[in-house]
Write a structure and sequence with these properties.
The structure is a homodimer of 444-residue chains. Helix content of chain A is 53%, strand content 8%. In chain A, strand 7 and strand 8 form a beta hairpin. The first copy, chain A, is of the alpha+beta class. The first copy, chain A, folds into 2 domains: 296 residues, Orthogonal Bundle (2-methylcitrate dehydratase PrpD); 118 residues, 2-methylcitrate dehydratase PrpD (60s Ribosomal Protein L30, Chain: A). The radius of gyration of chain A is 21 Å and the shape is globular. The longest helix of chain A has 29 residues. Chains A and B meet through helix 3, helix 9, helix 10 and helix 11 of A and helix 3, helix 9, helix 10 and helix 11 of B.
Chain lengths: 444, 444
């Protein structure tokens, strides 16, 4: 039996009762965070373009677009919602693979869930099964696949979305295998588009393709029985190395979801230790922007590779600039959505400070670690080491911090009561349902 | 300026008047052939599943589904039409890259063309521009990209579809560059799915994604300015070697479309010299199926690599079995759609004859060449060499042969008058329009 078929069987067998309590809670956290960042991204220009494209198609009213009083076919709702969930680059991250898992799996699960009127328990089952599938397929090809230039959030997200959607459609293992095959042939996405609208779009694209793969399989669409590990299967084609046993080893015992971290800042996750370091120096030594003569960051090479844009000109590019992140953290008391706009990217104060940032990379530093040394204009020298950035598995955001983030993102849209209502629905997911959740994302 | 931007500029500049007459005629041939194979594939199970999925979405009535009295959003019409155009593996082939170019470009052009009510001349412009773009991008990465396991028809088809759609939407070079970027991040498809419904679907998927990429770009969606040749751009990610100058070198002087051949048989193009050889031996020596003791085929290694299935169990698999093709050519006087069904694949007479076929590969033989040696049950030995298979650039199907193929495929659906009317519309494309063409694909 192929790895794909075994994965499909394992996915079919997962039921709400078997999922350990911490994993259930993590699913609720991921859902809450995903809805929060999506609501904050619902009116971004990238989201608006995709939503208007979908609205112009005037399709069947199967599933809700987050934050809007409108419905679309499940596939298309997943496309819009996936785009808005990733548009601020503020959504959760599986640090071992840098996959953003919720932005593909949650939109697919919500869309099919509402369409098929499933329960909150079924929704949670689908989210866990989809996320585990995506993360494990990602682990099987990371880092070579990512290093090659693939946008892993999308390339493996389509598998997670297909599994989540397939689970909610009640596919048996044979049909779920076929859905994974269709997902494999749709798997795509280039890191080259980071910093453009193509980046968040890819999450929506993967979510939508996953829904479609599951729907086609439900209707009897055929595919390769071993799309992942055949000699010309997905893993071989998209990566120079793969370890496909990781897709199924320890399934049901070890949950990769538990290594998913919630982001405190809406920029590439590898910039976070640097930002934490700035805030710590500011707090400990009262340093401010005008005190900085130079700021030298020592960090893992991924920091330069992923976020090495020295002079970002747009908000989307600024998310991929550790220079911008360090400079902005000196200038602003909190780094949230507003600090990654085109306006702030072009602010001369930010640009001047960016020029003072030096990045030194060193493989001995883990991606969630950094050292920052600031030389001040009066000749003083200050340094700090961040061992685990806030939001990383070694220093996770608490539920209270997650709620604060959610409220910061959603209160301006939903008001305080609306924001708190959605928090309660997510923490009590097993008693809620997808339609109820989605309705609560719409401003009164 | 990037290769992608230069390509976009060249695409924007092409106008009907500049296209040489033989290229215009070739576009008409490709359109005619594409419509013929699509009409013959409109009720295939793979098509039906995709069409029913689209119909369930009940979207805006922008463009026609070929052979049906129904309309769908342009993107979705392109998806259904692309699937049916490739479902019999009977559509045209660019032999230097084994790309099937029409099944992605023509559906995208027809869908956007009808939606935007363009003229026949604009449709022809879009088909030529889209096909040239796809074929040249394919040439830049062939054969390494294909050898790795990529379904090149889909991976480059999405670029061709985006260009054709973008041309009809009137995109300027900046927006067309953005459309190519969105196409690049959507580019996908695995050869592993050959012989399953996932194979024709990929053509529909690429056609639809191309339409979407162009529509998003029209609305201002941003992307990388150099998606093809950046250090982590498409070419680098999907191929271990690329020669991107081929995308633009000689543009407007050399037309790759002229190397596109129409298929006489609905099986992998590399099986065609073998089939020609069987018919020649039957004609020259009166050999029949029961005379065959053994049949030894000597041909290019691609024959074994692409069509090496010794015991196909379905019609879709039989298209990728040179064993089936040789056996069926001995048993049937013509190899068309009916000779590649599940029933014929399972026919014991065919299976017995398949077991007598031996394939020897030799790199000295070109993909359009083959030698067949038959030892008969009475001890006789007969052999023939095919220098250029029918339908290859060295031995193209004549217009009359193409019409015969079209009539064979469409007369059972449209009747003789309907079939001939559509032929006339294609030969007079510059005076027709997309809506008229699509309406003529519907049985009275």
């Amino acid at each position: 039996m192929s790895i794909t078929s075994r994965l499909a069987q394992l996915c079919c067998r997962i039921s709400y009762e078997d999922i350990p309590a911490p994993v259930k809670h993590q699913a609720e956290r991921c859902l809450l965070d995903c809805l929060g960042v999506a609501i904050a991204g619902k009116d971004h220009q990238a989201t608006t373009i995709v939503r208007q494209y979908v609205e112009r198609m005037q399709g069947a009213k199967q599933a809700a677009i987050i934050g809007c009083d409108s419905l679309a076919p499940a596939e298309q709702a997943a496309m819009v919602n996936g785009t808005m969930a990733h548009v601020h680059d503020f959504d959760d991250t599986h640090l071992p693979t840098v996959i953003h898992p919720s932005c593909t799996v949650v939109p697919a699960a919500l869309a099919v869930g509402q369409w098929k009127m499933v329960s909150g328990k079924q929704l949670l089952e689908a989210i866990v099964t989809g996320m585990e599938s995506a993360l494990r397929i990602g682990l099987a090809v990371f880092p070579e696949h990512y290093d090659r230039g693939w946008h892993i959030t999308g390339t493996v997200g389509v598998f997670g979305a297909a599994v989540a959607a397939g689970k909610l459609l009640g596919l048996d293992a044979t049909r779920l295998t076929a859905a994974l095959g269709t997902a494999a042939t749709q798997s795509s996405g280039l890191r080259e588009l980071f910093g453009t609208m193509g980046n968040p779009y890819l999450a929506g694209h993967a979510a939508a393709n996953g829904v479609r793969a599951a729907c086609l399989a439900e209707a009897g669409f055929t595919s390769s029985p071993r799309p992942l590990q055949a000699p010309r299967g997905w893993a071989q084609v998209v990566s120079c190395r793969s370890e496909l046993d990781r897709v199924i080893d320890g399934w049901g015992k070890r949950f990769e979801m538990l290594d998913v971290g919630v982001k405190p800042y809406p920029s590439g996750v590898v910039t976070h230790p640097a930002i934490d370091a700035v805030y710590r120096l500011r707090q400990e030594h009262g340093l401010s922007a005008q005190d900085v003569e130079s700021a030298t960051l020592t960090a893992n090479p991924l920091v330069a590779e992923l976020t090495g844009k020295e002079n970002p000109s747009t908000g989307l590019e600024a998310k991929f600039s550790v220079y911008h992140c360090v400079a902005a953290a000196f200038l602003f008391d909190n780094l949230a959505v507003d600090e990654f706009t085109d306006r702030v990217a072009g602010d001369p104060r930010v640009a001047a400070l960016r020029d003072k940032v030096v990045v030194v990379t060193d493989t001995r530093w883990q991606p969630d670690q950094a050292r920052l040394e600031v030389v001040s204009t009066d000749g003083g020298s200050y340094s700090t080491v961040v061992e685990h950035a806030v939001g990383s598995p070694g220093n996770p955001m608490t539920d209270a911090q997650l709620q604060d983030k959610f409220i910061m993102l959603t209160e301006p849209v939903l008001g305080g009561d609306g924001s708190r209502k959605l928090i309660e629905l997510c923490w009590g997911l097993s008693a809620a349902d997808p339609a109820e959740l989605l309705a609560a994302t719409v401003p009164c």
